[in-house]
Design a protein that fits this description.
The structure holds three protein chains of three kinds. Chain B is an alpha/beta fold. Chain B is built from 15 helices and twelve strands. Chain C is built from 13 helices and 15 strands. Chain C is globular, with a radius of gyration of 25 Å. The chains are: A alpha+beta, B alpha/beta, C alpha/beta. Chains in contact: A-B, A-C, B-C.
Chain lengths: ~130, ~475, ~450
Amino acid sequence: MNTPKALKYAKTDEWIKVEGDQAVIGITDYAQDQLSDVVFIEFMIEEGDQVSKGDPLATLESVKAASDVNFPASGTVTAIHEDLVDEPEVINSDPYEAGWMIKITLEDPSELEDLMDSESYEAYNAEREG
Amino acid sequence: MIEPTIYELSQPGRIGVTFPEADVPRTSLPREFIRSDIALPELSELDVIRHFTHLSKLNYSIDGGFYPLGSCTMKYNPKINEEVARLPSFAHTHPLQPIASVQGNLHLMYELQERLKEISGFHSISLTPAAGAQGELVGALIIKKYHQENQDPDRVKILIPDSAHGTNPATSSMSGFKVVPLPSDVRGNVDLEALKSECDETLAGLMLTNPNTLGLFDEHVETVIELVHEAGGLVYGDGANLNALLGVLRPGDVGFDVMHFNLHKTFSTPHGGGGPGSGPVGVSENLAEFLPGPIVKIFVEGDEETLPFFGFYTPKYSIGRMKAFYGHFAMHIRAFTYIAMHGPQGMREIAERAVLNANYLMTRVKEDYVLPYDRTCMHEFVVEGAWKEKPGIHALDVSKRLMDYGFHPPTNYFPLIVHEALMIEPTETESKQTLDKFVSAMKGIAIEAAEDPELLQKAPHSTPIRRCDEVKAARDLVLCCWIPED
Amino acid sequence: MMFTPHTPQEIEEMLKVIGVDKIEDLFENVPEKHRFPELDLPEPLTEMEAADELDYISSGNASTDEFISFLGAGAYNHYIPAAVDMLLRRGEFYTAYTPYQPEVSQGTLQAIFEFQTLMTELTGMDVSNASHYDGATAAAEAANLAYHFFRGKRKNILVSRAVHPQYRETIRTYMQGLENVVVLGDEDQADMSTGLQQLTGKIDNNTALVVVQYPDFFGRVIDYTNLIKIAHTQGALVCMIFNPTALGLIKPPGDYDADIAVGDGQPLGIPLSFGGPYLGIFTCKKKYVRKLAGRLVGETVDEEGQRAYVLTLTAREQHIRREKSTSNICTNQGLMALAATIYLSLLGKDGFQQVANLCYQKAHYAADQLSNIDGFELAFPETPFFHEFVLRTPKPVNEISDHLINHGIFPGYDLSEAYPEMNNHMLIAVTETLSREDIEFFAATLEEVAND
């Protein structure tokens, strides 16, 4: 399982990449593996929306499961990766780069302290598997 | 391609069934509304007969083989049911005919209502819901309305065991409730401590399947019901597993407030490849006024010479109508006939033999498969379709391989609380010989899983088609036949 | 007993394997004081006795075989070709389970796929699901879809009073579970002649869905173009409830840019059977396909590249989404959808248009004959109709019914039951099964009762 060191991780399997007060969000390699082939993504927000940590970001559907993606931090939505709607398989093949989902301007960077770093997330996954 | 579609078989100008010329003077058609064209296929009667006969041969069915499908109760569908449901005096009655002209229909519905009451211990019954899921919706809406009428609108919480069928939480959401899952304990019962902690003034009710989807009878069912009642909540019973209780226990006796029946499970009405079902609902006396109408009652009593005069009524605080007309009447006929042919002793024998078959199968299957809850089961049981020591094999592979042995797979991946679940329900109509054959198949597969896993992973090998690309089906959505341009 | 095969010998062997002495031992967990109740049910009947018993019960009915019926109002007496039931009676179809295992269910799956196709062709819409319980619940699911489409932000479901009364009740029953949803537009004061303008005037940006019927409950064929345009301007969805036979003759909902088209497929090869089981048809535009409740069959290939059919988009459904699914629906009306598929295949383009035309012609002849009787007139003489129309009678309908029934006629539906201000209005339906003689006999009998 791929767990890039530069990112932070939520217990609900979202990753967040922070650059100043801008952030990019997607789902982790572990999550896409659990879901298996994603066939559909539905975004629950629009550009410009103000969102809080925990708010629904998108719904993902695979053949055997459906999963909700939630915001790991609060902020304002600046960009939505709409192309994923036509090519949801990118989420499986490249969850951290081409599979990015949302960009936001962070409202409260201190929220990031609740998230895990890559080591903790890997340990958390090992615990879940065992 | 195995069988062409009706559009691929269509030949321009070919005619099937025709009708006589109009015997009335011609009225001109409304020009502004006339349809320009309609793309229906053009086939002869023989084309149609052959096509659907070919299609039928691609299907597995109860008439063809054993379905060990947990939670579905795939018992034999008696043929007499099909005859009586087709009696023209039943089948050719219009729902809006004058009541005096359909006393036969109402008589049957009334009798079915009464007999279902007797079997279940409930006070009142509505036959209207079209299927189990609709019956569940009725249950949830009744609970909601009951609390509303009691000026208790804060009761918004419904507790649902984690082993429950997906329709339970879906129904609760549809009814505006907040769903709170309840864990099961190590013996597969509702966790009493968890239940106690949720019993507060926001509790609307509990949805309980008993026996549950693990096939286990809750060892504390009376306590569970008492706790919910004490907290002011109601208990809804999912009657999907009633086959284990016929003549054994009446849910109304033990405190359930409302329950739905599945006529297409417990009472032998056929599954039809996915429907129609029928989901009547029974309630205790304090909920009788909330049932959906129309319900049959006696308006004028009869005597030794004459039958009563029957009619319809809708209870005073009814949650409302669930669909048009009166429910799936043709299914009522079948269920009534089934009950009439069994009588009181027959009902009990159904449950006894169903439970006997399940325990026999369980005892033999657990020799080769992990049985997470090793205690007496009711009419079904759950094993794991995977082994730690055989890592590449999943329940899916076991299921697919069973088809090569000539069996329909058991229910897969349900309930969610068992890892790689295979839920097995033999029903009472299967013989020991069939069960033994099934056990042999399961044993054979367990060995193959160790010695030749690829055989399972690529199964089935002998069915009309092989494993399907379900991802492609979802991604490249094709929901209609290709139709050639004229 | 009846259908259980066990011999005493086998039972003994099985108990030994299990490790208990008697069957009762398997029920120890059942609370003792309630265990094994005495059921007060009649003694069992053998098959022969059961056949007799059902015969006897059914003799308490009179059916459309003995009576000339002019009843419609949501259920229609059409001729069902013999081949339909012959195929439905095949055990491979009717004793099959839901096609969750495609490898052994291609028969069912392909038939549903063909059904979906036929329904989209009939309605001119993009997609159809594998069916709902009936037309009324399909309409309720349309309201459900609209509600979820707007994420609960639009709270009004606008329903025309000219929609079948039982369909409107069903929509209300389903909507009571959703927070603050209001079903309106069909208040008692809604006048049937100006009704549509009133309804259109109520559409605003709080409207999730507008529901109309086509032909409407009174049989009238109405052009909804303007209403739909206005609804779309306000961002609301429109659901047209259709009669399938009518679509053999008149323009389909797709031509009007409806978002959703639902109806009851009972007229397509399904017997009246006192109201059920029938067949809910649900079609819509492509953009709503993921919000669709109910089963969907899609085309794909298997491992060897063979064309195959599977249930698809199942992640929407209750068994996966659980409390997050938008509907709890589990079954469809499998066998009824098969009946409709076979019926339409048998009739085909020509046969289906023939039936529609016959219904139209005979209904118009009936309207002509009946309105020519003194004291009787058409309630909506200016509005086109398909095979149902409203006749105004000189006396309340319940006063003339008895006479008609005594002459072997089931008169049309008494509209005063659902429309209190219409207490001398009868809704009359005419299908291809009625002859010119039947119609003339009805007219003659009506004339008698008018002259009392």
